[in-house]
Q: What sequence folds into this?
């Protein structure tokens, strides 16, 4: 009895291999890279180290200037609410939007880091 040979679909096999590779990559996203993978581990900085302070300084200066500008815009004769309330409200709004976008931005960064492959 002769066995019937089935045609091999190379495209189907390539898709299955790509799916397996994608699953394998997704399973190892949460663990740090090994040294033999050629990926440098993340560098962590102390909270008051020079690079952290230098990165925070422009944002702090901008925040102070924005607060002073809002306070000066809302200071006028007959104001019913103290001017600092507007600056506090804008700060709360910006922090709320930032917290809402924190997870999507973090997932985007993880996706971009895991998608860098050497060809």
A:
């Amino acid at each position: 009895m002769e066995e019937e040979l089935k045609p091999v679909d190379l495209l189907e096999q390539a898709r299955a291999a790509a799916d397996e590779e994608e699953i394998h990559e997704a399973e190892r996203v949460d663990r740090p890279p090994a040294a033999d993978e050629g990926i440098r581990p993340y560098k962590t900085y102390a909270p008051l180290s020079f690079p952290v302070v230098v990165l925070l300084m422009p944002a702090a200066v901008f925040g102070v200037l924005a607060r002073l500008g809002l306070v000066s815009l809302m200071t006028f004769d007959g104001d019913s609410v103290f001017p600092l309330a507007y600056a506090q409200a804008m700060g709360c709004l910006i922090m709320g939007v930032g917290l809402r976008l924190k997870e999507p931005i973090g997932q985007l960064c993880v996706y971009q880091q895991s998608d860098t492959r050497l060809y």
